[in-house]
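Q: What changes when iron/sulfur cluster is included in the input?
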Amino acid sequence: MNIENIDRRRFLQLGLLSSSGVLVGSLYAFSNREVKKEFKTYDDLRHYDWGYVVDTTRCIGCGSCVRACKIENNVPDTFFRTWVERYEINKNDVVRVDSPNGALESFQNNNFEKDVEKAFFVPKLCNHCINSACTQVCPVGASFHSPDGVVLIDKEHCVGCGYCVQACPYGCRYIDPVKGTADKCTLCYHRIQHGEAPACVNACPRNARIFGNLKDPKSKIRKILHQRRYGLLKPDLGTNPKCYYIGLDREVK
Amino acid sequence: MESFNGFVFPNELHITWTVMIVLYPYITGMVAGAFIVSSFYHVFGMEKLKPIAKYALVSSFAFLCFATVPLLNHLGRPTRAFNILLTPNFNSAMSGFGFVYMTYMVIVVLEIWFSYREEFIKRYHQSDGIVKFIYSIIILRNTNVNENTHKYDKKMIVFLGGLGIPIACILHGYVGFLFGSIKANLWWSTPLMFIIFIFSAIVSGLAVLIFLYLFVHWRRKLKINQDSIDLMSKWLWGFMIIAVTLELMEILSISYERTEKWAILQHLINGKLKVSYLYLQIGLFSIGPFILLSITTLYKRLNVNFRNFLIWLSSGMLLLQVLFMRWNVVIGGQLVSKSMRGFTEYFPGFMDREGLIVSFLLILTPFILLRAFDKLFPFFDKEQALNK
Ligand code: SF4
Ligand code: SF4
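A: The predicted holo structure follows.
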C-alpha cells in the first residue's frame, strides 16, 4: 500500500488506533506482570559484601553517572552522591583540579590554555568504609552498616545534627535541605536488592565503574582486584574504604 | 609543585555547621566558667569571692537554660532531638551529650536551691496569695530553719560544688573533644583541643562575671567589692595567659612539624582567617587584654576607678576573644576542603533562620533572663553594697 494514497484523515485514524492498541496491550502486560518482592533474610544478606571498583584509566568524564544518580535518587541540586573530578597537570607540574557542578554537565572548558601534560578523571562516591568514620560518630545510631556491607542512613531516625558530614573524610555526605536529614550514596540499595546494578554502574559507557560481591570468589570484582593494582583514598585515616581505585594518582586525595 | 588551586569537593560548597554551632560552645563555656568561679568560694572557701559566688552560680544557670537553643535551632529535625537520649550510640562522642548536660543541670539547680533555701523561706513568710503558694512549692513546704539545717545546706553546697567542677569540665572539655576527635578535619583534629576549650571556658566565665558585675554596679551606683574584683582579674589574667599560650602552642607545633596539613593550614591562617584569627583573636583581643591586665595586676598605685575601668575593658575584650576563637575553630575548620586543595565560603546572612540577627538575640536572652533572675534570687549582697 502506498502511503501517499491514503488521505490525511484515514492516516490519523490508523495512527490513533494502532497507538491505542499498543497502550492497551502494554497496560495489560504490565498489570499482569507479577512484581515479586524478594525479602531477603538477615542470613541471606550475610552472603554478600558489596564492593566497588573505579577504573580511573577508563573514565572519560562524560558525567553520565552523575546524571543517572541524580535522576534515580532524586538528589537535590548542588548536592552530590557521586561526582567526577578532573585532574590536569601541565608541563611545569602545576596541578589543577575541578569538578564543575560535580560534572553533572560534564566538563566544558579546559583549565589550562595549553601544555597539558597529563590529565585524567576520577569518579567519587561513598566508599562504604569498613571502619567508617560516619557511623562511628552518629549520636543516635541512624547511620549503620547493613549486613551486606553497605553504609546506610535511617532517615526516619536521623536528627540531622550533621556530625557524620563532618566526620566523613571524603566529603560524601550532605544534609538534605528538604528532609533535614543526612544523605549519601546507598549503592542504590533499592536496586541491588533485586539483583540490579547501581544506576551509575549501569550508565557508565566505558565500564569504568564495576560493582560486585566481594564475598563471592567467582565475581568479576574479585577477579579484577586479584589482577590489577589499585589504591585507596586516604588510607592513612584507617577508614578501610571498600571502593577500590585502579590507576590512582598520587594527586588524588 | 603547585597543588593548591581552590578546589573543594562539590558537597563542601555548603557549610554544615553554622554560626549556631559557634554559639553553643560559647554559651556552655560561660556556663562552665561561671560555675567553676562560684565553686572557688563554695568548695575551696576563698572568702574574697563570697560576694560573687551566688551571682556566679545563678549566671551559670541562666546561660545553661539557653545553651541548647542554638543546637535545636540548627538540627535538621529538632523534633527528634530526644533520640539522642532514647537511642544513644555510645561509639559516638556526641551521644553522651544529653546525659552530661542533664546531670549538670540537676547539679546546678540543686546547688541553687540549697543556696537560696533560707532566702526562699524568708520570702515565703513575707508574701501572701499566689506568690506564697509558689514559694511554698519551691521550698517543698519545708520551713525549717535552724542551726542544723543551715549546716546541712552548707554541706550539700560544698558537695554539689565539688561534684560540679569535674562535670563542668566534662561538659565543656567534651565539646572540645567533639571537634578534636574528627580526624577528617585538619584544623580540628588535635588532642589539645579539649584542654584549650576548658581553659577558654574559664576565661569566658570569669570575663562575663567581671563584665556584668562592674556594669551593674556602676549603673546602680552600688559599692564595688574591690577585693573580689582584684582577685578575679588576677585569675582572669592567669587563665587567659594559659589559654592563649595553648592556642599558640598548637599552631606552633603544626607549623613546625610541617606535615602535609601545614601546607594548607598556612593558607587558612594567612587568608580566610587573617582578620578574625590573626588580627582579632590573637592580636587585638589577646594581646590587648594581656597588656591591660598586666598593668592592673602589677601596677598597684593605679587609681581605683581607672583600674576597674581597665579590668572591665579587658574582660569585654576577652569575651570577644573567646567568641572569635569559637568562630575560628568551628567555621575555620569547615572552610578547609577535605581535598586539601582549597577553601569554601561562609557568611551566615542577616535574616536567616541561622543568621546574625537570630544569633544576636540568642546571645542576649541569657542576659535578660539573668536580669529576671535577679528579682527571684537576689544575688548581689544589697546590704553590704549599699554602705557606700
Ligand atoms: S566514604 Fe564517608 S560516608 Fe561513606 S562510609 Fe566512608 S566515612 Fe562514611
Ligand atoms: S546527621 Fe543523622 S546520620 Fe548524621 S550523625 Fe547526625 S543523626 Fe547521625
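Observations recorded in class: The first strand of chain A starts at residue 50 and ends at 55.
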